[in-house]
Amino acid sequence: MTKDTNRERLLMRITLSGLRYGWPVLILLGILWFPFDWLSEVWPAFGSPFRQVFRTAHDHFIGHTIFFFIVGMFILSIVPVLRRRLHWYILGLILAALIQETIQAFFRGQFPTFTDFNAFKGDVLGGMGAWLLWFVVLLLHASRKRGTAAKS
After folding, report:
1. In angstroms, rounded to a whole number, what is the distance separating the alpha carbons of residues 152 and 143?
2. pLDDT the model gives residue 73
3. What residue ranges do the domains of the chain occupy?
4. DSSP string for residues in 21-35
5. Tell me: the pLDDT tens digits for 15-56?
6. How far is the C-alpha of 125 from the C-alpha of 123, rounded, in Å?
7. Cα dihedral sign for 117, 119, 122, 123?
8. How far apart are CA 6 and CA 74, in angstroms?
9. What is the pTM of this model?
10. Of 11, 83, 94, 119, which has fewest CB within 10 angstroms of its CB?
């Protein structure tokens, strides 16, 4: 009987943790994976400013970098364990970038080829920039804590 109760409690704790962290992450991924190229085609009011911002390959690179930086910062603030588990964060970053490119290709009516290295470089730069910023902030926080503890 006790094993069943412990198993049920563990399952309940995992479910609640998944709900607590899962819904904000799913919303961020939904925004990240939304086909903005497609939206710019079907909604001219959105398409005009979208094309003005993303005119060249360089602008596209900058857009991916900023977008993945912002999403990375939010993900790292929602799921703090990823700040200490770089390998899981990188795996998630790669998966998010591949899924994003796949969705974009499908909405263009193409099969994903994953040859847009310009976009992938922007994804990696933005995502890793977010992780590095968190890393530096945590180092500074730990350093300040040690300095305060040494003075006491």
Report:
1. 15
2. 95
3. 24-147
4. HHHHHHHHHHHHTS-
5. 887 777 788 888 988 998 999 889 999 999 999 998 888 889
6. 6
7. negative
8. 33
9. 0.81
10. 11
- Structure tokens belonging to residue 65: 């970098």
Structure confidence by residue, pLDDT tens digits, 69-89:
999 999 999 988 899 999 999
Residue 3's pLDDT is 66
Residue 94 pLDDT: 93
DSSP codes of every residue in 14-66: HHHHHHHHHHHHHHHHHHHTS-HHHHHHH-HHHHHHHHHHS-SHHHHHHHHHH
Closest to 75 (Cα-Cα) out of 122, 129, 37, 120: 129
What number of residues does the chain have?
152
What whole-number distance in Å separates Cα of residue 111 and Cα of residue 99? Answer: 12
Task: Output the six-digit token pair for 98.
Answer: 């591949």
- The dihedrals phi and psi of 122, each to the nearest 5 degrees, come to -65, -40
Quick check: 37 and 91 in contact, CB under 8 A? no
Tokens for 30, please give them: 């939904």
- Residue that is written with structure tokens 């961020």 in the block: 28
Can you tell me the distance from the alpha carbon of 6 to that of 99, in angstroms, rounded to the nearest whole number? Answer: 37
Amino acid at 113: T
